[in-house]
Design a protein that fits this description.
Order of helices and strands: EEEEEEEEEEEEEEEEEEEEEEEEEH
Protein name: Neurobeachin beta-propeller domain-containing protein
Shape: globular
Radius of gyration: 19 Å
GO molecular function: protein kinase binding
Oligomer: single chain
Number of domains: 2
GO cellular component, one term: membrane
Helix content: under 10%
Organism: Myodes glareolus (Bank vole)
Number of helices: 1
Distance between the termini: 42 Å
Largest sheet: 5 strands, antiparallel
Pfam families: NBCH_WD40 (PF20426)
Strand order of the largest sheet: 1-2-25-24-23
Length: about 325
Amino acid sequence: MQASPLMFTDQAQQDVIMVLKFPSNSPVTHVAANTQPGLATPAVITVTANRLFAVNKWHNLPAHQGAVQDQPYQLPVEIDPLIACGTGTHRRQITDLLDQSIQVHSQCFVITSDNRYILVCGFWDKSFRVYSTDTGETTTPRAILTGHDYEITCAAVCAELGLVLSGSQEGPCLIHSMNGDLLRTLEGPENCLKPKLIQASREGHCVIFYENGCFCTFSVNGKLQATVETDDHIRAIQLSRDGQYLLTGGDNGVVVVRRVSDLRQLFAYPGCDAGIRAMALSFDQRCIISGMASGSIVLFYNDFNRWHHEYQTRY
């Protein structure tokens, strides 16, 4: 991976930390940022559409050293939080082929919080498979969850609450315990029948994006709290850890920050030169990592307090 010239205007660059390019040019379809202090290997893990994955080492840095007074939210350009070059990166390939009828996307993959394993779905035998990020070899799954009548299109894990959320092609989203018990069904409005993306926060908030372009927010008890429609073909969503903010990205190449309680837009980042396929937040939530259709990853500086304050000022 190598650093790439920024594609943004000078004014917009204050929110862009870095642009990195993968040599394969394959779309980056999944990004996971497990960068919390204390991990044996804090890293950003990326998976491309041709099933290449990379473990990119992350160096936690002190915040805002040398920030410019007139631009208090800008990270100094010499800070380079992602080390992803040469010997510092493990690049491996998931050798098992996915079903040719499956479009590879972000929800086909889950990375465990210790960065040791990748869970992959979309195989011809309808199985989930677990791969070691160190060796690339398969291992044994812990449990099998059932309850859907149709193929599963999206899934998310909330480890803090011990929950697994999943949605199927022609049915509602389900909440399971990690032991396999079916706990609850999440029913959206009548026109929301095909869930495509799902995210859950440790505070129990759940956001689902449906094929018709509608977002829905649910409580962990299954109560529908808010809905909103978008005309962008959304490919990736990410919740803040406290569940108050939602990041979205899609084919128009724009990362949007929304408030979860009512799904109102707070902020939109400068548009990229390619569609967004995947997204993650660093542990300190100060960095948004977006995987691009062009085979790049773009790192944006993030400050939820800033977006909230600017929204309040506008309205």
